[in-house]
Description:
By secondary structure, chain A is α/β, with parallel strands linked by helices. Chain A has helices at residues 23-39, 57-72, 84-93, 106-137; strands at 6-9, 12-16, 44-48, 76-80, 101-103.
Amino acid sequence: MDRIPILKLGPFLLVTIQVDMHDKLAITLQDDLTQKIVEKKARGVMLDISALDMVDSFIARMIAHIATLGRLLDAHTVVVGMQPAVAITLVELGLNLTGVKTALDVDKGIKWLEHAVTLDDQILAEETGRDLDANREE
Amino acid sequence: MQIEKSETLPIRMETHVVEARQMVRKWAIDLKFTLTEQTKLVTAASEIARNTLIYGKGGDVTLDLVSDKGRTGLRLTFVDQGPGIPDIELALRDGYTSGSGLGLGLSGSKRLVHDFDISSSVGNGTKITLTRWK
């Protein structure tokens, strides 16, 4: 069966969609990615759609699902490389992919993921520190 | 309206949806539509092809290169013999869905083309025609 490869890039997973996906392939990717996030303890997912010349409501829904699933599994998701014609069409179609972080290219996507993870770690460190202080006061 | 060229493709399985949109892309390129115009047409075709497959239980799409009053266009006609749409007005409303979709298939596609025509009869099937002019 066809599968879209998922590459591990440090703490992140990278998916480059290079084929015209039929619906089952899109669903398989969603399932594979969810498993991989848990298996590899990934902190982020980058979905490169620069080779996609069309995103219809089904593919858009898959992208939104991946972002939501990622968030639930403690992984940030960024979609990179959307073609301008695809963006124009999506808006006209009535889809705005609310809640999905986008970046113009892979470089910017990686930077954003790194930033998001650093921020998470800082917040966690601060909160843990605060908890320790609170315990000491008691 | 004159038909200069015509081709019919089946839409009976998921890979046919992909093939249909690739053929629409090819024709749109041949017709020298801009990239954005191509993308709009291909996306609309994908939405309706999926409807034909899922709700219409399969059917066909006919691509026509049409000319009318000195302008040329690409017309897509999707036909199925499925259960039909009981309330077309409702089906065309943004956000309305009978399945698991986002409810933007029909209403969204309509915005991506110039002419949109739908006729349906319960128990007999649905015919949807999309045209984008140059």
